[in-house]
């Protein structure tokens, strides 16, 4: 991690680049497994804890995903590209630890971020999917600042569409 070595509590000896068709596996401390690929950092711990180790090849048993306490927070380091299942597991752990909650209380295929003002909230919705995605019910009645229209029930966002919704 270069200049972030102290924060991350690790040092990277080498980076092994994998061919596009090559995959490896990581094993989390609870025994669950996930596929990884693209790059596999050879990591040495310097205070961090390993959350998952490589499961195959010459780096089997060495850290792939780490966590280090630093200051008032934590630094998570991923030494490889994880498949969605593995990445979700790491992000869920980090979000719980940081007491980060979802901008909306329901599952959605949209990227949603929120900015809060004194009296109202502004939600930025982006559909990165190739297909239309339904706008969550919690936004019904909100005002789309880009069109000036009120969000209606069952309204959807087309692929790659962006909305900014104001809610009081």
TrEMBL record:
Coiled coil: none annotated. InterPro entries: Beta_galactosidase_C, Beta_galactosidase_Trimer, Class_I_gatase-like, Glyco_hydro_42, Glyco_hydro_b. This is Beta-galactosidase trimerization domain-containing protein. Residues 1-100 form the Beta-galactosidase trimerisation domain. PANTHER family: BETA-GALACTOSIDASE GANA. One of its GO terms (molecular function) is beta-galactosidase activity. GO terms for biological process: galactose metabolic process. Residues 109-167 form the Beta-galactosidase C-terminal domain. It comes from Candidatus Blautia pullicola.
């Amino acid at each position: 991690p270069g200049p972030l070595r102290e924060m991350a509590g690790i040092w990277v000896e080498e980076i092994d680049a994998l061919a596009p068709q090559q995959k490896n596996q990581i094993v989390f401390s609870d025994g669950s497994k996930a596929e990884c690929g693209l790059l596999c950092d050879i990591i040495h711990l310097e205070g961090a804890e390993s959350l998952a180790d490589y499961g195959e090849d010459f780096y089997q048993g060495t850290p792939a995903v780490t966590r280090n306490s630093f200051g008032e927070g934590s630094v998570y380091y991923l030494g490889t590209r994880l498949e969605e299942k593995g990445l979700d597991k790491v992000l869920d752990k980090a979000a719980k630890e940081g007491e980060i909650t979802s901008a909306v209380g329901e599952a959605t295929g949209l990227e949603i971020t929120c900015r809060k003002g004194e009296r109202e909230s502004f939600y930025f919705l982006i559909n990165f999917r190739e297909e239309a995605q339904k706008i969550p019910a919690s936004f019904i009645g909100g005002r789309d600042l880009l069109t000036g229209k009120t969000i209606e029930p069952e309204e959807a966002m087309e692929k790659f569409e962006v909305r900014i919704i104001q809610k009081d």
